[in-house]
Amino acid sequence: MKIKYSIKLITIFSFSILATAALYLLTTKILVKSPLKTSDCFCLIEPEKNKYSVFEGEKFKIQFKIENLGRSLWTSRSQYPTFLSYHLLDEQENCLKYDNPRFPLPQKVKPTQSTEIIITLRSPLEAGKYILEFDLLKEKLAWFKDYGSKTSKIDLIVKEKTRPDDKYDLSLDYGKFTKLSSSMDEINKIFKLIRFTLSQNEVSFNGKTGEVCGFSAGTDYPQIWLRDANTIIPASRYFYDKQFLCSWLEEHLAFQKKNGSLEDWIDSRGKSDKNTTETDQESSAVQASFQIFRIIGPHWLEKKIKSERIIDRLEKSLNYVLLSRFNDRYGLLTGAHTADWGDVDMVDEDKNAVYVDKRTHWTVDIYDQSMFYQSCLNLVEMLYSLGQSEKAEYWQKTADSIKRNTDQWLWQEDKGFYRVHLHVDTLKHEFNEDNIFPMGGNSQAILSGLACADKCRHIIEEALKRQKSFSVSTISGTLLPPYPAKFFIHPMLDDPYEYQNGAQWDWFGGRLVYSMFECGTSHTAKDKLKEIIRKNLSNKGFFEWDNREGIGLGSDLFCGSAGMLGKALFEGYFGLKLSENDLHIEPKLGRESAKIHFYQPANDIFIAYYYSFDPDNNKLTFKYNSNFSHKGTIKILSPWPDLNERINDRKIHLDVSIDGEKADFKLQSVYLDEFIIFESDFKDHTAYILVK
Q1: Which residues pair with 54 in a beta bridge?
Q2: Measuring CA to CA, how many Å separate 684 from each of 165, 489, 590, 596, 633?
Q3: Which of 147, 232, 672, 677 is 20 to 30 A from 296 (CA-CA)?
Q4: CA 557 to CA 561: how far, in whole Å?
Q5: Which of 378, 521, 385 is nearest to 449 (CA)?
Q6: Residues 348 and 3 sit within 8 Å (Cβ to Cβ)
Q7: d(CA 1, CA 336)
Q8: Which conformational region is residue 38 in: left (phi greater than 0), alpha (psi within -120 to 50 degrees), or beta?
Q9: What is the pTM of this model?
Q10: Using CA atoms, how far apart are residues 607 and 633, in angstroms rounded to an integer?
């Protein structure tokens, strides 16, 4: 949590009714006719202009004068607060989105008095002509127009914002662009939203290491946050060059303390800080470095930052974690008592909640073990690539020990998931924490490889079960059930399903969906991916978090969510597995179709394919091309149910051909998924898979 650095986020929850409602927590179904007097609900809303022209997704301001023509006082701080809001209509005045952000009045407004207000909106993500119908409402009771008050309508023209990639035709030929077209229009729209979110968070400045390029975490977080930036790479790698891939991390390493500690964030002013309740900054740096290493190769690891090699700085950072955050009793890492992966402690109500002190309660938690375990394995591979086998073996043993002790102390066989944490001190609760399902830590346990295949399936089953039983709109719900009301003192998460205490976070939901693709539950993964996509399209952007019903809150343009949903989409659904020396294409489209062209600027590699399924002729066509120079595997999720069983029973026959020639293939089952696998180079081929 970037609590110290976002005044907006701090004040949002300082006035619980005012600002939570201001971010439209309620839906129109909650608004019901009430015994309000008609005379209470009359207003005159006069905008500064009646027409605006903006680009897709652009923020713009509107100024209003609002006059109270009724007989009662208006205030945004009451049981039924008064807010300004709007309905989004199309050009023909058909309603596209009824409930939208609420805007609190700047002051109390008595009858016959008026007030002025300036609000900031973000335009729709699709070009076109719209109408914004503004009205006042008594939250939980009624809109003023329901009582005969006149609304104010503003014409909005949204212009298309072109990008360099738009000029290219989608083809199988080499090209320095990333573009796709899916038979599912929602995927086309979310792809555009991912690209837009990245572009709105671009950061460039001169730092200790020279020109620094990277991404801020979101609208409310202008700094480059280490844990966030690590999760942006899976999406940004296909749009941005080597400078955006590497320089931000090199700058972070330049801020490394002598003891190996790394900061949480850095900014363009040369400032930095660390939320010490966390134990994942160093792990995040190693994981980000590993992604870069896999893309451009081991030579980058030997680059020196202030006369010290990157690989040595990474090893020093993990040693710092072992020396400063290791509990001998459990043989595991420690972290402050927060909400799963969160960084807000349970004892502070202000900005000090992200810093440890003598009042801090300590735990050994599943999230930090998963992050550290993954970073150990990443470091092992990087060290081996540089010929440092002795060091690699040490970190492999460290990883093995973390895995063994995590299984012993945190895995709950009777529940089928890892507990959120164990207390290191004498703290006891009046409720059973072990019943809380920490989706964030468990999804990271799958992603890191800490959870074996059997554990992965149990965790996924539990996540699906909890989503349903707690009525969460997508699989992104964290901490189900949440901690009780007022358990956390800080106003940002003192209520259930609020912020890190059980709200929806696609930052982790994206990891879980990707893991579902990898664990043999692709059909369910696609359903859950679509749920998340629809939620974000409805919200018109990636928000830091969403309430239980799926309404976006916190910082918008949240880049980590774009990165992790990009991973689920690009690597999971479209199946692109690309590194410097390996390429595997594993599409899991089933009976859907798509054309994709992905380009990785850091090493000038492109991958393109056309995937289509013809159900009438039981034929799958897969055309593919790349300038990747080595052979690899094509692993296609079968669009035919029970393929293995039907072939073994000789009910059907399967043929695979490449460019008209029969090809060798094999069938592989991964839990509920069935794959058709064949080896190939990637030089402009057409594969046909036919069932007879």
Answers
A1: 158
A2: 22, 60, 22, 14, 14
A3: 677
A4: 9
A5: 378
A6: no
A7: 13
A8: alpha
A9: 0.90
A10: 13
Q: Which residues contact 428 (CB under 8 A, 6 or more apart)?
A: none
The position carrying tokens 């202009």 is: 49
Which pairing describes strands 605-614 and 619-626: parallel, antiparallel, or unpaired?
Answer: antiparallel
CA distances from 138 to 43, 113, 146 (A): 12, 18, 11
Q: Which helix (H) or strand (E) holds 122?
A: strand 114-122
Query: Which among 83, 100, 195, 82 has a CA at the least distance from the CA of 156?
Result: 100
DSSP 8-state class, residue 415:
T
Alpha helices in 439-490 (DSSP H): 439-448, 453-469
Phi/psi for 19 (5° steps) reads -90, -30
pLDDT score recorded for residue 2: 66
**Cα–Cα distance for residue pair 673/311, rounded to 1 Å:** 38
Q: Is the distance from CB of 586 to CB of 160 less than 8 angstroms? A: no
Say how many residues make up the chain: 692
- Return the H-helix or E-strand segment holding 535: helix 522-539
CB neighbours (10 Å) of residue 615?
10
Q: Is 74 helix (H, G, I), strand (E, B) or coil?
A: strand
Closest CA to 242 of 197, 200, 297: 297
Residue with tokens 């810093």: 355
- Residue 227 tokens, joined: 């844990």
Convert the pLDDT of each residue in 428-464 to its tens digit.
Answer: 999 999 999 999 999 999 999 999 999 999 999 999 9
Q: What share of the chain is helix, strand, coil (3-state, %, to 5)?
A: 35, 25, 40
200-204 LR contacts (CB < 8 Å, sep 24+) = 200/57, 200/557, 201/557, 201/559, 202/244, 203/248, 203/268
Is residue 649 a contact partner of residue 687, using CB atoms and an 8 Å limit?
Answer: no
354: tokens are 């992200």
Return the residue matching tokens 């380009």: 599
Q: How far is CA 98 from CA 27, 52, 386, 589, in A?
A: 9, 20, 58, 33
Sign of torsion over alpha carbons 134, 140, 141, 146: positive
Amino acid at 297: G
DSSP letter string over 290-324? HHHHHHH-GGGGG-EETTEEHHHHHHHHHHHHHHH
The average pLDDT across 72-92 equals 94
The answer to whether the beta carbons of residues 683 and 659 sit under 8 Å apart is no
Distance separating the N- and C-terminal Cα atoms of the chain: 56
Contact, 656 vs 609, CB < 8 A?
Answer: no
Contacts of residues 647-654 at CB distance under 8 Å and 24 or more positions apart, as own/partner, are: 652/691, 652/692, 653/691, 653/692, 654/689, 654/690, 654/691, 654/692
Q: What is the CA radius of gyration of the chain?
A: 26
Neighbour count for residue 452 (Cβ, 10 Å): 13
Position of tokens 């503004």? 134
Distant-in-sequence, close-in-space partners of 162: CB < 8 Å, separation ≥ 6: none
123: which DSSP letter?
-
Least confident of 124-138, 269-283, 637-651: 637-651
Reported as a single tens digit per residue, the pLDDT across 136-173 is 999 989 999 999 999 999 999 999 988 888 889 999 99
